[in-house]
Amino acid sequence: MSESRINVVEASRLEWPEQERGKHTAGGDIHTSYSADTIAFQSTVRKPFLWKGEAWVAVGLTGIGGVEQAEAVRLVAAESFKGTITTYRDRCANERAARAARRDPMGFYHGVRVKRGGAAFVLSGPEERFVAGTPSLFEDAVPAFSPIEVTFF
What we know:
Shape: globular
Structural class: alpha+beta
Order of helices and strands: EEEHHEEEHHEEHE
Largest sheet: 7 strands, mixed
Number of strands: 9
Strand content: 35-45%
Distance between the termini: 23 Å
Number of helices: 5
């Protein structure tokens, strides 16, 4: 994906869960929504996070230069999805299919059918990036990231 939307969110939303001497912190809602593994192996997603009134799940997590980030896609009801619905398995059926999925301008996960709590959903791209920080983090850097759109919490 060559173009990307960056959403700057409160750092707490991307916190990693911790386990220390019997204590367990839940972690941030964006981080705990990470579902790439369950999408691939079970066609399910973990509890989504909300962003601007829509449900999302993280499909990638990174910490670049000490700044936590996530790539995420929208989670929409299957009956309201406009487009071709497929499965993760079909997106990766062979090298040709996987290459096409990686090059899809709507993102690798676009159109992939999943379940959450027994209900059918579809992932809708393109992926967007969620970055821990404040608006000042990007004020001077935005021109260097073009073409992007940056939104703030």
